[in-house]
Specification:
The chain is mostly helical and 333 residues long. The protein has two domains: 219 residues, no CATH class; 55 residues, no CATH class. The chain is 41% helix and 4% strand. It has a three-stranded antiparallel beta sheet, with no helix packed on it. α7 runs antiparallel to α8. The longest helix is centred in the middle third of the chain and has 18 residues.
Length: 333
């Protein structure tokens, strides 16, 4: 448990300079993963009034919302995802390499009759069309599908609230929106309540559902920012006990979601620091100097935790002692 800081106490903002991410110790595998999913029953607890919790929560919350300068990092990320989510393959029953026509292409072609290159048949996520795709794009199209799968939702959400949101959306957009749009509006109304009551772990789960929604809506840059922020909150041990510092590990779903987006955009964590920093500074509802881990520490932790997946892990190869030269005594004549 961290010692609570009073709002009147001025703390010096910590500056972190971590040159070598390898120096950061990743211990999340030894800790139980932080809980992620929440139910409508847990949301109901946010209707309670608790002045004492609210006063404690204020000690962590930002007193003012600061404007964070973009410097183009977000727009560049949007452009990167637009390119990585572009349509792949040929819908004309033609080899995606040499355009040789096939009357009925099989599911897998190891060697095109025209150019001897491999391709496969699949459905395209952007429009559902059946296309022939180059073999080297197999993982990319798999990640495209992964990143638009149905989002996770709060369990047993109140149907009356969804209906209320349905009416609101119809008034605002003049269209019938999906259940995911309604769900998004419902969870947003609980964001401030979870912060005011100091239920920071519940708040982090709401951030997860936000990220899921943005991913599903193909707002990939915004989704990645929310997953980065979620990683930061979980690493800092967000607790429902109006504190940070719970001994928990980052949930695997969080790292999997980050990995899927980075893989699709062909980006490494080592090249993601600008967006990571911008995400935390832009989205954070807390005074960052009061949390166990700062932004740079958290980023270094992220880079370290991805080193194996990104092929940066150094293998400990035992040093071999040089063999002793053999020699023999010769009799002098």
């Amino acid at each position: 448990m961290l010692k609570l800081l009073t709002k009147t106490r001025k703390t010096k903002k910590r500056e972190y300079i971590i040159e070598d991410p390898a120096s950061v110790e990743v211990t999340t595998k030894e800790l139980p993963p932080i809980s992620l999913f929440i139910s409508a029953e847990q949301l109901a607890s946010l209707h309670e009034e608790d002045r004492h919790r609210q006063e404690e929560a204020l000690m962590y919350l930002r007193s003012t919302q600061t404007t964070v300068k973009d410097s183009g990092i977000y727009s560049r990320s949007v452009e990167c995802f637009e390119k990585s989510f572009s349509k792949l393959g040929s819908a004309e029953q033609e080899c995606p390499h040499c355009r040789r026509s096939y009357v009925s292409a099989p599911a897998e072609v190891k060697k095109c009759l025209g150019c001897s290159k491999a391709f496969f048949k699949t459905k395209r996520p952007q429009d559902g069309a059946t296309v022939l795709v180059r073999e080297e794009n197999r993982n990319l199209i798999a990640m495209q599908w992964e990143n638009i799968k149905k989002p996770d939702m709060i369990h047993d959400l109140n149907s009356d609230e969804l209906e209320e949101m349905s009416v609101r959306l119809k008034v605002e957009t003049k269209e019938d929106e999906s259940v995911y749009d309604k769900h998004f509006l419902v969870l947003e109304r609980y964001i401030d309540k979870s912060l005011r009551l100091g239920k920071f772990r519940l708040y982090s789960s709401l951030v997860y559902y936000q990220a899921e929604y943005y991913r599903f809506k193909r707002e990939f840059a915004k989704a990645l920012m929310h997953y980065f922020y979620l990683y930061f909150l979980q690493l800092n041990g967000a607790s429902n006990s109006v504190v940070f510092g719970d001994k928990v590990g980052v949930n695997q779903r969080t790292t999997d979601a980050i990995a899927a987006l980075l893989t699709m955009s062909k980006t490494l964590t080592t090249n993601s620091k600008e967006l990571f920093v911008y995400a935390i500074e832009h989205l954070a509802a807390f005074e960052l100097e009061n949390l166990p881990y700062g932004i740079d520490e958290s980023y270094a932790h992220l880079v370290k935790s991805f080193e194996k997946a990104e092929g940066r892990e150094l293998l400990n190869i035992p040093e071999q002692k040089p063999k002793m030269k053999s020699f023999r005594l010769e009799r002098l004549v």
